[in-house]
Design goal:
319 residues; mainly beta; Immunoglobulin-like; 2 domains; 6-stranded antiparallel β-sheet
């Protein structure tokens, strides 16, 4: 989504709008027994198109649901996609987000969702953790972030969502291209099919959490950052420099890491740090900047910023 000169950089921010925190939940990328690979993460978000005053959920009718499965307690209100990364611009994406807002006729209902991709063959892509539906609320929408790493040739795929009861593991509902044509027109490929940038470093996920507002003025003095960078097809020693970008566009360095090693698409090489602003930062709204450098040559490999829609309200402790 964000770019630097010569390198396309992908940045996924996990933001909980009602809280000054950001964190990612972990999905299971299920082994389908063949040579496909993907990197998956997910979180609960709010559906921006849905008001909390709505009394009836849109989606499959009771009649349609009951004809396919005996349990009609859940309905799909909406599914939408954010197509994130197509490095070579051929119209086939190797990274995307799928958002699904599922409603329940019960006040609370625990479910999990298994997503499958159907192309030349049909294979399981992900399984969410158990999460709770709250009636027809839009605040229990799930966002799964998918990076296809290998085994997905360039073609149109169909996404199939299987919704299960967390209590009984019974299938409650299957939602696919017969219900919504957008689910059967996903033009995808894995990252090895991209003709450009396969040997570059990319930023798969970035999260942050603000804390320590001692005077209660809404400006925080501590920042915890977690990022997951990838080095497709390589192992690479890197270091990270974090900055706060002020209203004049100036990058103010707040942290430089020790060197650490990136392993292909692994998520076990995540970098986490906590920063305390001791002095020098007026109470203001800042933007988070991230730079990743090669540890051997000190060449800049990646430069990116958090979107302006996710500002950091911060000040140093001397205020």
């Amino acid at each position: 989504m964000y770019k630097m000169a010569f390198v396309i950089v992908t940045l996924l921010l996990v933001i909980l709008a009602s809280n000054p925190q950001a964190q990612a939940a972990t999905l299971t990328a299920t082994d389908s027994g063949n040579s496909t690979g993907s990197k998956i993460s997910g979180s609960i978000i709010s559906n921006p198109e849905k008001t909390q005053t709505m009394g009836v959920a849109r989606g499959l009718s009771l009649e349609t649901t009951s004809n396919r499965y005996s349990d009609s307690s859940v309905r799909v209100y909406d599914v939408w996609f954010n197509m994130v990364a197509d490095t070579d611009g051929d119209g086939y994406y190797h990274q995307f987000e799928v958002n699904f807002d599922i409603d329940s006729e019960l006040y609370r209902q625990d479910i999990y969702v298994v997503g499958e991709l159907a192309g030349a063959s049909r294979q399981i892509l992900f399984q969410t953790e158990t999460y709770t539906l709250s009636g027809d609320s839009g605040d229990d929408t799930y966002q799964a972030r998918v990076l296809l790493t290998e085994g997905y040739p360039s073609q149109a795929y169909e996404l199939i969502l299987n919704i299960y009861s967390a209590e009984t593991d019974s299938l409650l509902l299957q939602y696919d291209g017969d219900n919504d044509s957008r689910l059967r027109s996903l033009f995808l490929e894995d990252n090895t099919q991209e003709e450009a940038g396969y040997d570059q470093v990319t930023l798969y996920e970035l999260g942050f959490e603000l804390s320590a507002d001692q005077d209660g003025d809404g400006f925080y003095t501590q920042l915890e950052v977690e990022l997951d960078a990838d080095a497709p097809g390589q192992d690479r020693n890197v270091y990270v420099r974090l900055s706060l970008i002020d209203g004049y566009g100036r990058w103010n360095n707040i942290s430089t890491s020790n060197l650490f090693r990136l392993y292909d698409y692994s998520s076990n090489d995540r970098y986490t740090t906590r920063v305390v602003l001791d002095y020098g930062f007026d109470p203001a709204t800042y933007q988070l900047g991230v730079e990743i450098f090669d540890a051997e040559t000190e060449n800049l490999l990646l430069s990116s910023t958090a979107p302006s829609t996710t500002p950091l309200t911060m000040e140093s402790t001397d205020w």
